[in-house]
Amino acid sequence: MKYLILEPKVRAIAPNIALMKWARWCELNGHEYQYVRGTVKPKIKPDIILMSCIFSYYSKRYEKIIDYYLRLFPDAKMTVGGVFPTLTPEWFDKRKWNHPFLGKRVGIYCGIHPDIENLPPKYNVEILDEDEGKRDQYKRDKIVLYASRGCTNKCGYCAVPKLEGGMKSFRSIKQMLVSSRNDLPSAKSVVLYDNNFTEHEFFDNIVDELKEFGLPVDIHGLHVDAFTRQQAKKFSELSWASQGKGGSPYLRFSFDKMKYADNIRRALGYVVDEKVKAGFFCYTLFNWIDSPSDFWKRIVISQDIVDDKGKTIFLFPQRFEPFMALERNTYVGKKWNSDLVRGVTRMYTFLHGFIPLTKTRNVFNWIGYTEEEFLDRAMKMATVKGYNLIKKDGIPPTTKELLKGI
Predict the structure, then answer these.
(1) Which of 189, 272, 356, 401 lies 20 to 30 Å (CA to CA) from residue 38?
(2) Which letter, b or e, does each residue of 235-248 get, where b requires 16 or more Cβ atoms within 10 Å of its Cβ?
(3) Global pTM value
(4) How many whole angstroms from its chain centre is CA 393?
(5) Tens of pLDDT, residues 208-220
(6) Are 2-109 and 134-402 equal in CATH topology?
(7) Partners of 253 in the beta sheet?
């Protein structure tokens, strides 16, 4: 059989893990295959096309790419997996793809495929990219994998419980690491895309394997409510990787709800006490069930924690998108309005994507000294054409003053 492994052209830091595993599967099972990214003319005429679709808001792009390859290979069958088809299978049931008389040309696969789950990704797979040689091609210098699947939590804004179910911890990733180094001997870091690494059943063992492997690490999905001093101590043994060239390495937590404030304070204390060699980074969800006032309060509480523990917190705001949103940046939460959402987005974009809380409290010269001033600046950024944040002169208020009314 001949397989076309199809990665849609969307923003990414590395090839799709599942598709790299399918490349390995084809190799092990003696199938001819080609991995392509975007719309290109492959060198093979496939019998089967395997495609992965992650974010629903790229739906128009997905539709165009599916149409393109079905026109190019009218006799091929296509199977689409990933987050989007798992959560929204009905979107793929289009008459032009699944005609009652001409037959079903696009099938979907929901969830994790057992044939590839335990295979090591083929990191050095040859990729025919529509932007061959252009700047937006990702660099293949990261070993990206999982040390666990699923999560113990069932957060209302997260799709993981529906996709992967409960927590499943892998006892070891050593063989995956060895295989990946054979594929990418010049790899510069290891990225774990775990959803909740702090709940990993074999946490110490995985950290020991990463330490022995010797490359800097970037772990996505650390939960402050489960983070312990012992875990911080183990993290102090690791070298941490930055996402981009010349960037800072971070521990990636989240401050999505006010109820996590005490956990943030405790976790940052552990990081400081155990001298973990990485910055403290918090994804900060907004535009969900929170309010603009709640968002401001999380900023101020974070500043209070910084003053208490003496280490910077980098808040990384994330605009909430519903699971099945077919367009990006259109949803507005019940307690928000479109101008405020747009203004807050422009505000942190102006600040390079972060709201950095430091001992100097300098960021408040940009975002405002009070909740009312913060919201006023956000509204101006949303509604005044060409408006930029103007830094205020003077000394930012003390944290005690910022906390008034909270």
Answers:
(1) 189
(2) beebebbbeeeeee
(3) 0.92
(4) 36
(5) 999 999 999 999 9
(6) no
(7) 282
The one-character DSSP state at 138 is P
Q: How many helices (H) and strands (E) does the chain have?
A: 13, 17
Domain ranges of the chain: 2-109, 134-402
Pairing of strands 103-104, 98-99: antiparallel
DSSP 152-199: S---TT--HHHHH-S-EE-S--HHHHHHHHHH-TT--EEEE--S-GGG
Q: In whole angstroms, give the CA distance from residue 4 to residue 45.
A: 8
* Euclidean distance between CA atoms 184 and 88, whole angstroms: 35
Phi/psi of residue 242, each to 5°?
-95, 155
In angstroms, the CA 298 to CA 333 distance is 17
Identity of the amino acid at 61: R
Query: 78, 34, 95, 84: which is closest to 61 by C-alpha?
Result: 84
| CA dist., res. 186 & res. 184, Å (int) | 5
Cβ neighbours of 115 (radius 10 Å) = 10
Amino acid in the structure at residue 8: P
Which residue in the block uniquely carries the two structure tokens 């101008």? 339
CATH class of the domain at 2-109? alpha beta
Contact (Cβ atoms closer than 8 angstroms) between residue 97 and residue 106: yes
Q: Write the pLDDT tens digit of every residue in 147-156.
A: 999 999 988 8
Write out the E strands in 206-330: 217-219, 250-254, 279-286, 313-319
Cα(342)–Cα(111) distance, integer angstroms? 34
CATH architecture of the domain with range 134-402: Alpha-Beta Horseshoe (3.80)
